[in-house]
Amino acid sequence: MESLSAQLLGIEACLSGRRAFLDGAEQARAQQEIEAGLTLAESCESINALAVAIAGRFEPFYRNAGECLERIHEIAGYGTLASCLSSLDIAEALFDAGLCDASGVASANLVIGRGHIAPLFYACRHLRRGMPLAFLAAVHDRVPSVVNKAYGFAYGMRHSLGEGVGIALGRAQTDRDQRVVCVAGDGELNEGVSYEAIRLVGELETRNLTLIVDSNGKGIDPLPGKLRPAYLAAYFDRVYEVDGHDAAAICERMRDAEREGVSAAIVCHTRKGSHSFKRAGAKPAASASAVTPKASSCSLTGNLIEEIRDGAPAHIFTADLAARFGLQPSHSYCNLGLAESALLTAAMGCPEDELKFVLTDDKYYLNAVDVLHSALIGSRNLHVVAARKNGVWGGPTYVSTIFGLLEDTVYELTDPRTWRLA
Predict the structure, then answer these.
(1) Class of domain 284-421
(2) Where are the beta strands (DSSP E) in 158-221?
């Protein structure tokens, strides 16, 4: 394990690589913080404790969380700014309720299921002198953008979402005298594991769990349908609907559930813009023949499918990733949200002699690897196309090992335009 000084120097190296995206005042403050951190490193037990110690020596550089979040994403050049902003007032309610503080998640009984909104908590901590600018400027590189134990969360996640409700259920079952609060997104509730956990909340009569849902009708793409409060009401004692941009209202409902000793779902209606942040002035590839990065070249997939099917029947299913794969309404695809297992089994139900395409993501299909195996050995003409994102979420690096066990043809393509040659 790296020493704290080595980790701090790693952050400094990251900032050096991002220097062009920091203004002069930010560079000066970050350097002061690095220097202060090197003098404090030996007296701290963890990187998070060091972050708090450094930040405590300076006034917050940014004056509000929205501005701070925007700079985090502008400096990194990518991320999920819209998701962070849609949950901003939910996070403020958590801080107001004492579930979070300058050092991170103050209660082990707070579960952040929307794992990719970790930068939001860093921004809120910055305003409370708990996270230095230097660390904010290294998010999505040396500082993780997904909830991580090393940076003040009670647990860690390898995936960006989908596991929170189950984690909260386990905590609530462990100690029925403690109130457990879970923050999830409406997209996350499309996950099969979330459905299972919600059912168990009701059937196990788990009265000490509060689920806060950021409900905005969007994942990466618009969700297949709106969240149905009546579904939640089948398993929770209380379902409240509030303005998700009213922190006081969210806090009040949290207190109501705890005072009454009931399980509760608080549906927070919020607004969300474009899911993936792109730095202003970022230039697309000059032409279709230009060399493009792995992620952006996925946008050619929809048209490639049209070319391959050549007018024949084809069935296209995607897990909330239509935009990434360049799918248009004319492609007649079906977005099943984040229902990975249903994605594959729906394809299995299509006519055997017709083409079937499942367009997904490496972390999504590994969530349902057993069903993936069944689909591949039980179907013909099934093509699973998955975008690799190893560097973004710290995602799976064992994909080839998993697929090596399957008796099917597997290609790993840098650019899907070579798919036609595979």
Answers:
(1) alpha beta
(2) 180-185, 209-215
